[in-house]
């Protein structure tokens, strides 16, 4: 490594110096351990078992412990431990269930000393007693922990954790007889090596497997644990009940945790997957790492501080087949790159904004809110400590309150509960959902549902009340998209043909008294250019037609019609026409100015109801008024995108389900999946589990439908022997006892059985509910604190 600084640390008579450096290994490492004087490190893995010397400039290979032509599985190591009292003593945990000790003082090439094969499955962890030379502890996948006296050929004590797997075991640094064990069911147990029959204390530390634990080197009561729930927790074990005093949220499962020497609140962690970095945390500031080492290119499998009294050097091994020595001065400080501004919404809509104090004070143009300033400045100040090099921080937090009523989400809950997404015809679903939206005072959503019904329903079944208002005014009126005067003439029926034969077809103005309807028709003689196309002009009187009654009327003059000579009067006059005040003046002026129209033709004719005919009522549509559903798909797609962008993903998903195949192919699968996941997340946040399940069932996205099929398996342990039950019944095949015995009444439960996933005890639902009213501990007397239940 280039341009790395060198550090020299005086530890009594020993002096540690070096820099950040690395070496390539022959195979990926599973674990590392350092000797007592911090001059050598052992690296163990499935295909590697070597000792390296820690020199000032580099790693130097000293010894390869994998000897022989065909190394056995005893060399395949899951963990390794170098004794801190005896410099020649090593212990390894083999993947075949063996616990092996190694004596480096042997003159032969094979340094294997003793072999213990009492475990039936892989040994996950080995740990030497910090002060007792011959005491070795192991934890295995078979759920047992064994204590070995290296002067004997077999274990002296066996501890049953009554769980599926033991992931870590650690002797206490300050209490001679105590050790801690972590398990895959989320529990942590404290044992006294003098009492192998029962643990001293047990508590649930994490919601998933607990992969690691570590006792604080200075404070005898602090125990750090890390698990699959991406959390590192610090527990105070000096009280009667384990108390969580610190919690650090990481970004991946925690595989290893090690307290930093000489720094009370610092600990190092590495991940089991995804994240390759090593983080050093100050547990008092859990939201951002104190330091980060980013050298590894694959998952870090082992970390150890070089010396128990030196906080400046950290050793690590990785699956990328490298061994690193990290110097603390070369670590990255994430706080130096952190964004100084923060923004967050509260549960009730309040907005919190944090920024540098200098930025807030420099904003002199701020105007106070009407009714008083609603900002609440809160100052955070962190004193500089020479032993911890956190950046000096000073910030101001402003909280902006909001009106609770304006941000309530009651409409979302009510809509989700009242909407119908299946089980009825499409038109009824749309009408029902439109009614729900209208009652919740959401007119836009209600109108959208109504328009969807009009667009995609069968015209024969289109019975909306709003579409029948034209029939009351104009009789049976078919909806037309367009018609021409030429087609009108040919489709007028017998009356039209009779008038045409008489030469009386051409009429410039007609007045229909029942509807007080005026229609002004300008033919080709009134147009500016002979034979050009022009839009017909229609003038409606006091009773105008609605848009639903007449969509559009077009006048087509592409083909010239035969000219007729129109007599001065179409019908015999009943009385003398003196004046017609109902005719607009500009129409009379236009007719008078026309060179092809006589003065008599410019007069408006009045038709009685008996002599007149309805132009629209006898007209026939030239084509079907119903448009195919595919015509509206682009519009509906844009509408769904609009609702989703506005944050109303509920509307987008509901329409997507109700329309089904009509619109599904128009929207890509990734977009649909995003909408579904967002809506389901909102439903679950509001605890609308039934609605969420219905949405998942009605979805056609494979990624959504599988949500109901994951995490549906429950692993059941026998309440008597704590072994996993493999058969389908409630009789344990190991102890042959009934596992469904009520812990309260001690009778076999027939029917609904409630049990705790931590201790496997349970009973009748009513009995357990009554018990929890008076106590939170297991009624079987195991001491377990009940948190989670299954039915």
UniProtKB/TrEMBL annotation:
Entry annotated with the keyword Transferase: yes
A GO MF term: ubiquitin protein ligase activity
Main location: membrane
Repeat (WD) residue spans along the chain: 116-158, 203-245
GO cellular component: a single term: cytosol
SUPFAM superfamilies: WD40 repeat-like (SSF50978)
Pfam families given in the database record: WD40
Subcellular location: Lysosome membrane
InterPro entries for the chain: WD40/YVTN_repeat-like_dom_sf, WD40_repeat_CS, WD40_repeat_dom_sf, WD40_rpt, WDR24
Catalysed reaction, written as an equation: S-ubiquitinyl-[E2 ubiquitin-conjugating enzyme]-L-cysteine + [acceptor protein]-L-lysine = [E2 ubiquitin-conjugating enzyme]-L-cysteine + N(6)-ubiquitinyl-[acceptor protein]-L-lysine
GO terms (BP aspect): autophagy; cellular response to amino acid starvation; positive regulation of macroautophagy; positive regulation of TORC1 signaling
SMART domains linked: WD40 (SM00320)
EC assignment: 2.3.2.27
Enzyme class: transferase
Pathway given in the UniProt record: Protein modification; protein ubiquitination
Keywords annotated in UniProt: Autophagy, Lysosome, Membrane, Metal-binding, Repeat, Transferase, Ubl conjugation pathway, WD repeat, Zinc, Zinc-finger
PANTHER family in the record: GATOR COMPLEX PROTEIN WDR24
Record's function text: Catalytic component of the GATOR2 complex, a multiprotein complex that acts as an activator of the amino acid-sensing branch of the mTORC1 signaling pathway. The GATOR2 complex indirectly activates mTORC1 through the inhibition of the GATOR1 subcomplex. GATOR2 probably acts as an E3 ubiquitin-protein ligase toward GATOR1. In the presence of abundant amino acids, the GATOR2 complex mediates ubiquitination of the NPRL2 core component of the GATOR1 complex, leading to GATOR1 inactivation. In the absence of amino acids, GATOR2 is inhibited, activating the GATOR1 complex.
Family the entry assigns: Belongs to the WD repeat WDR24 family.
Protein name: GATOR2 complex protein WDR24
Species for this entry: Cynoglossus semilaevis (Tongue sole)
